[in-house]
């Protein structure tokens, strides 16, 4: 084989490798944009449903696509295409309305036209109390983030969606609110950790439909203690194996 042949073979191999890498990156971009997007949980606002160190997949097609479905949120079009309405009780990733560069995750409790209010720690929707019963206490700082027993309630929305909430503080600042009327094209979001959540009662406000990124569906990895998933040597002691591949409700 001549030197020229060897050079062509080498350059051809590099070209093929580059082509494979580009195709893989494009495929990953399509999957992330249109199908699934991974997210990590950075705060305790959705405890006990979601914990810091949970890594989850969000389905992008659940509510259709808006500019915020795309990387860097380019202003290519307004509204949503192939839109689907979120259901009451969905756990949703959305763009923080005052600063859309920030992702938030909360639970949808109020739909367009609803009247939403907290009274004595109980959720009211359209002047009707949402079913709520105390189911016990949790005394596990990894779940509650505090070193004492915490009351746990099971809340059941009018459509039957049921989930647990934490009550860290009796008579908390968010336990009694004014009545909020949800505008058309907007949603009211609450965190399951009711006394430690910046949500629609406070800075988040009403969330526009086009700010929804997707529905949180499954936890694919979870690690405690502030450890990174790359710290493989910590997996035996820090990975929450019981949470792996849990569906989010």
From TrEMBL:
Q: Name one GO molecular function term.
A: signal peptidase activity
Residues in a coiled coil are: none
Which GO annotations describe the biological process of this protein?
signal peptide processing
Location of the active site: 45, 106
- Pfam families per the UniProt record, alphabetical: Peptidase_S26
Residue ranges spanning the membrane: these are 20-39
Topological type in the membrane: Single-pass type II membrane protein
According to the entry, every stretch annotated as the Peptidase S26 domain falls at: 16-221
Q: What is its main location?
A: membrane
| EC number(s) stated in the UniProt entry for this protein | 3.4.21.89
- State the protein's name: Signal peptidase I
Per the UniProt record, the source organism is Aquamicrobium defluvii
